[in-house]
Amino acid sequence: MTNGEVLSQSEIDALLAALSTGEMSAEELKKEEEGRRVKVYDFKRALRFSKDQIRSLTRIHENFARLLTTFFSAQLRTYVQISVASADQIPYEEFIRSIPKMTIINVFEVPPLNGHILMEVNPNIAYAMLDRVMGGRGTSMNKVDNLTEIETRIMSNLFDKAFANLRDAWESVADINPVLADFEVNPQFLQMISPNDTVVVISLNTQIGEASGMMNICIPHVVLEPIMPRLSVHYWMQTQKKESSPEEEKALEERIRLAKLPIIAELGTAAITIEEFLQLEVGDVIELAQSIHQPLLVKVGDIPKFIGQPGKRNKKLAVQILGTVKGDENDDDE
């Protein structure tokens, strides 16, 4: 019986009967269960990532898939749908054997992280993209073995711009700057890491118009090793509240004190018709709706705050504050 296996009622009854009749003792059952706990470990297929970290990488690249969908839809002006199909950790050699012998492989550097990331694009998808960029209907074909220099340049430029979206997808775990380092069509020529080194392969289902295929993103363990703690659920769920120090609060208060605010003293207001406005000429007088004996309304920005009276100080116009505006419930908050 393996962990998580559910026994039927008949199996439970048979087990209880065997225990009660002495055919099987509890000690034998315990030894049998302990013996089955031993698992075979394949050192060629070392598991470097926990399930939690694989789930985090899946979430990150689901966001990346959405960004790629938006990018390619705008660039190719056709129906595009990209989604994460799977995320697995396998030896690098197994990844190389799983992709076509002739395919489109983009090698990216992701400074400040060390190492390279591969983006393998199925030729059917790559040529559909190329055909759309060249003004075609998005017809798919496969002639990777004789790519011209112009086709290579167009493809590499397209995928270089597309992979720049990885910066936004990874911003929660690392600040990277993806740069296209190499463009290859034969995976056997790519000896980035040791064949037995573990890599994470994120497979993306891709639909470009009527063409469909897979794009695979291969990330070696050495690239992710410095940011492994950030892929845990604890990092994603923790609240990073940083309390301000007294020095920072004092500096902020000082900057606020030095901020300049517009102060407006209104002499009064008036309402006129559009016809009267159109007939205004130099020398006309507009009568305000406020007596000269009433205090002026003083605004901070557009908010009424004080009342005051006009005057002069050092031969300059000035306003003397007489009091604050009453009846504003939000005075203290503002």
Automatic annotation (TrEMBL):
UniProt xrefs under InterPro entries: CheC-like_sf, Flag_FliM, FliN-like_C, SpoA-like_sf
Cell membrane found in the keyword field: yes
Ranges for domain Flagellar motor switch protein FliN-like C-terminal: 255-324
Keyword tags: Bacterial flagellum, Cell membrane, Cell projection, Chemotaxis, Cilium, Flagellar rotation, Flagellum, Membrane
An example Gene Ontology biological process: positive chemotaxis
Membrane topology: Peripheral membrane protein
Keyword ATP-binding: no
Protein name: Flagellar motor switch protein FliM
Source organism: Parageobacillus caldoxylosilyticus NBRC 107762
Alphabetical list of Pfam families matching this protein: FliM, FliMN_C
Family: Belongs to the FliM family.
Entry GO MF terms: cytoskeletal motor activity
Locations listed in the record: Bacterial flagellum basal body; Cell membrane
Top-level division of the source organism's lineage: Bacteria
One Gene Ontology CC term in the entry: plasma membrane
